[in-house]
Amino acid sequence: MFKNFFSKKSQENLQKEETSLEEIKDPDKKKKGLFERFKEGLSKTKEKFSSALSEVFEVDRLVDLNLLEELEEKLILADLGVETTLYLLDPFKNKVIKGEPLTTKELKKQLKDKMLELLIEYEKPFPPEGKPSVLFFLGVNGVGKTTTIAKLAKRFKEEGKEILLVAGDTFRAAAIDQLKMWGERLGIEVYHQKEGTDPAAVIYQGLEKAIRENKDIVLVDTAGRLHTKYNLMEELKKMNRVMDKLLPKERRVNILILDATTGQNALSQAEHFTKAIPIDSLIITKMDGTAKGGIALAVSHKFKLPILFIGLGEKAEDLLTFDKEAFINAILPD
Ligand SMILES: Nc1nc2c(ncn2[C@@H]2O[C@H](COP(=O)(O)OP(=O)(O)O)[C@@H](O)[C@H]2O)c(=O)[nH]1
Ligand SMILES: [Mg+2]
């Protein structure tokens, strides 16, 4: 995998994310472009939703309890999970029980509105204001932390920001090398120490350096190994405390990375991490390769966390700022 990671393909993947001149002249066009990219990237999830829901919504008819039960089963299977599905459907059940008329057409429209409502928006500026601001990336091994850091760092660099990457995954030398190679490729400095160094110490010194050198943004990589003697959660708490000592919390975003292909497992990962340290937001990766994109709704709802970006591939431009309308319309078109 590691070798693969820095293949020629990956290099080509680092091409510039461009906004065309037409999009600048016509912001609606940009929005349309965004909708298209969500649609394309989420096509597998859309197929799953449409094959599951087409029977329910095919003909416009009056909704009864049977239909809602059928829909319930299908939404659970489309990775929305029991909790979120019940939350979405309960008001419609109550309506039907009370004998209020509701057509499938109205149901679909109102269901989409409710889905939009439960996706929390990230209200604060991103990245946070103040120099330096810190993005702290967490998540289990292989979810895409290092790749996402590279994608974001590239974006910030193109905006003219001074960046520092901190190699807080000191568990394997290869993890440090992976970040160093991204740094070289992107022309961005990486603060690192030897394999096995206490990650909290690396982060402390990395942050001190960023403060001293007046960097704009620090992106901190971490290890994600859960099934070893290494107590990841305790280590993460320590890293969090160390950063609190150097900078006000408002300048940092703790970002949990989840891999959409893991489906319901993402919920238990979120459970673990949110118990250990305060998580501010989510990035959900690998939405391109999976039909399990519905997990985004389940995890955002259950943990009341906004989604900042979604990963729709390995290319640099495949990190899209999360747009809930584009997302819902992509998986559940009218
Ligand atoms: N298809 C796809 N692959 C991704 C995405 N994000 C990361 N990957 C791949 O997932 C693998 C693991 O990524 P890595 O950043 O090393 O994960 P880490 O262990 O969390 O740092 C790599 O092969 C990445 O290219 C994505 O959005 N889509
Ligand atoms: Mg990594």
Describe this entry's structure for a reader.
- This protein is α/β, with parallel strands linked by helices and about 325 residues long.
- The protein has one domain: P-loop containing nucleotide triphosphate hydrolases (Rossmann fold, 3-Layer(aba) Sandwich), CATH 3.40.50.300.
- The chain has helices spanning about 1-5, 10-15, 20-25, 25-40, 45-55, 65-95, 105-120, 145-160, 175-185, 200-210, 230-245, 265-275, 295-305, 325-330, and strands spanning about 135-140, 165-170, 190, 215-220, 250-260, 280-285, 305-310, 320.
- An eight-stranded mixed beta sheet has the order 3-2-4-1-5-6-7-8, sandwiched between helices.
- α13 links the parallel β6 and β7.
- α8 packs parallel to α9.
- The longest helix has about 35 residues, at about 65-95.
- The radius of gyration is 21 Å and the shape is elongated.
- The two termini are about 40 Å apart.
- Mean pLDDT is about 90; it is low at about 1-20.
- The structure holds guanosine-5'-diphosphate and magnesium ion (MG).
- The site of magnesium ion has 5 residues, from α8.
